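Self-study notes.
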Amino acid sequence: MASTANPFFASLSTKTTTKASLSKLTNSSDSFLRVKSTNAAVSLRISPSSGELNRKARGRFGICASSAQVMDQSPTKMGSEAPVIVEVDLGNRSYPIYIGSGLLDQPELLQRHVHGKRVLVVTNTTVAPLYLDKVIEALTRGNPNVSVESVILPDGEKYKDMDTLVKVFDKAIESRLDRRCTFVALGGGVIGDMCGFAAASFLRGVNFIQIPTTVMAQVDSSVGGKTGINHPLGKNLIGAFYQPQCVLIDTDTLKTLPDRELASGLAEVIKYGLIRDAKFFEWQEKNMKALMARDPNAFAYAIKRSCENKAEVVSLDEKEGGLRATLNLGHTFGHAIENGLGYGEWLHGEAVAAGTVMAVDMSYRLGWIDDSIVKRVRSILEQAKLPTAPPEIMTVEMFKSVMAVDKKVADGLLRLILLKGPLGNCVFTGDYDRKALDETLRAFCKS
């Protein structure tokens, strides 16, 4: 971050019972706040012009995030008897993430989160033949008072739009669902985003549950309450923050996931290591072959650790005031690729992978990271069989026009997530040399 004349450093934890201490930095007017945690320390660096944070200043902050992990990095076997539970701590809106094998065969996990008698399962044409009957069975076994409706949407990012969303509302209204109903998202990130947005909007808000069936959804999009749809001018521009009652991750659903979808999800796993969890990234470097071979224990650990990282960040910054934005490493470039090609031509993780390489390249041009990180990022993405450059059709102008309407633009200033410092550290900032962005775009585009 270029402007750090009076940085304010905050080390935060997800636990509310921790103690904080405030002291002056040596030879400086800066202050340092540290909240100790048994699992992680998340650092924020901001440059306000006064003691209070205000909306006008927030758009100009640079935010730095890192995580210091002390947990065991070894994969553990998970049986179908007891799921691993990761808690998303949001006060009275907290919820569990259940992770394990065979969880769809444990009906009590879902039923405890259904408070009314009516359920609407939202899924797609690919997932429905595989898991819809199983989910309906889990919702109704020994629970005859619950009735389940379903709506099956077309599959693909290109259908993440208003026309498709209306089909969910049509089914809910035709079925005369009331405010005590529960929506269930059964599928990948597109289904989860649309079902969550429908739940946030129908009757001004009804309960919903996430059952993600792709790596992408299991490690990222199902956790944290981001919901929405795309607009022709930009990705995820219409939506809401709306948290589920629970997230149920049955790792057995990955057995039917195509190889390309599996690799796509690994882009988000890699992201966590780069921005805040260096030990996790090192584990990935050692275990990428196992992940690509679908080793169940390796995947169980990768999903668990990713969810822990996501839950920690969401608990601290639910509505993306700063810290949560760091989870979007590579996404600003990646969303431009998805929009420029046409939604669905590249999978989300493929676009994010190429975008991550571009963000890392820009970080290096700014002098914020050393060349070894650049090489390691490219190497691990290649091992995951993910793109390391945008498609040739993308031009500098295409990138700039889409990035100009990115959600992270504030007061006309494009803020980016870039790596800075040792592995596992990043900044969210608009304070960077624009020449570096131009040089990166020209390096990756022919025109």
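Second protein, same conventions, sequence then structure:
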Amino acid sequence: MRYFPLQSAGGCSFPQISSSSSAAMASLSPSLLSLYPSLKFTSPRGPSSISTSAPALLSSPTLASAASPRRRAPTQAPRERSARPSRRKTPSPPPPPPTVLTADAAEAPPPVAAKKVLIPIGYGTEEMEAVVLIDVLRRAGASVTVASVEPQLQIEASGGVKLVADVSISECCDKVYDLVALPGGMPGSARLRDCEILRKIMSKQAEGQRLYGAICAAPAVTLLPWGLLKRKQTTCHPAFFDKLPTFWAVKSNIQVSGELTTSRGPGTSFLFALSLVEQLFGESVAAEVGQSLLMHEANDHSKNIEINKAEWVVDHTPRVLIPIANGCEDIEMVTVVDILRRAKVHVVVASVERNLQILASQGTKIVADKLIGEAAQTSYDLIILPGETAGSDRLHKSRILKNLLKEQNLAGRVYGAICSSPAILHRQGLLKDKRVAAHPSVANNLAREGMDGAKVVIDGKKALFLSTPEVREVHGLTPQRIM
């Protein structure tokens, strides 16, 4: 049995089995532009004012004389005083100083409403494309609604990942969105096409000249039958390219034609999402989000480091465990699962929470295959920990997972971590004499084990695999030599 490297833009390398039926994944376009310099705002200085307290004013010579007039010497015998009260008025206190409206308050812009985005999903939707869209757009500040076109909110995506929508598509028909973006996949694109409510929403979006987009199979399978590609230059997945009108078909990773944006597939999903962010929020926001995802490192393969080389051999279909928890990074989870399953690896997604459903870092709802207790009844050739600080902390608290990792190490089997999760291995004493790569936020805590500037580190000592930060594209995730 022959195995081959498959790489994901997440900058993660994984052991995997090759499949003769695996289709070539689309590669990413050139790396993102670097961030623009941060904007600096200076508030104009408002007019200064002097305020004087009432006691101070009363103590001044002018007001003091008014309050207590000087008495004259009497010229005749004083009259008997009347019992009538004196009519002399007590001076009222001065009015408070006027409120000065500063230039900052006068010129403060009204709050801007969040951009509204609709992402419909159905049975067979491509999970990587859907989750990347959700994650990236939410990072940019968009209010993203995930809507199911199925009778139920939970759907099973094309690679077997179970996603839960926020609402049913029927709740979205009367709302106006700044963007409607369709993920691809099959039969997901056909399920979207057959939804009459979604067709009306998309037609209204196009008629209103508001942004809409589609990726992978969706441009050809969904938008074309709805008549929403007329006089629009369009691209799509190579497997469906011949369905596009010949004159308007373009072989490009990203194609923007008026309000319509199209893209090719899972490998271009980050570029697709960032292009939509740029159109909604501007270039600087898109660049900032790209940098937060470490996209500037996604195309830099020179930072892949392998030490203590070892051959990892199994005589069966590799079994891989992906433990997940509330707060785990959704893109890292879904990308690893999707790509390994494409390589015909048996992947088990296990929740360390009390429930199968977890809420990922950007609000994506994902349903695990098993609870960690049930998953622990089987041994695995590889255990991979997704990252994000909150999720990593919850993974670290799982006693069952801690025992699994300890057994994995003692048995000389492979384990790995992405983003902030190498810190879990460090706290559990699993990084002795091993070198790692990690997200910059935890790199200082791994000074002894970390390798400066490395994107992916593979340390074969005791069959250890370690992956790097939050850089996760299809071309960066590579199954490594399991034969």
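Instructor comment on the second fold: The longest helix spans residues 127-139.
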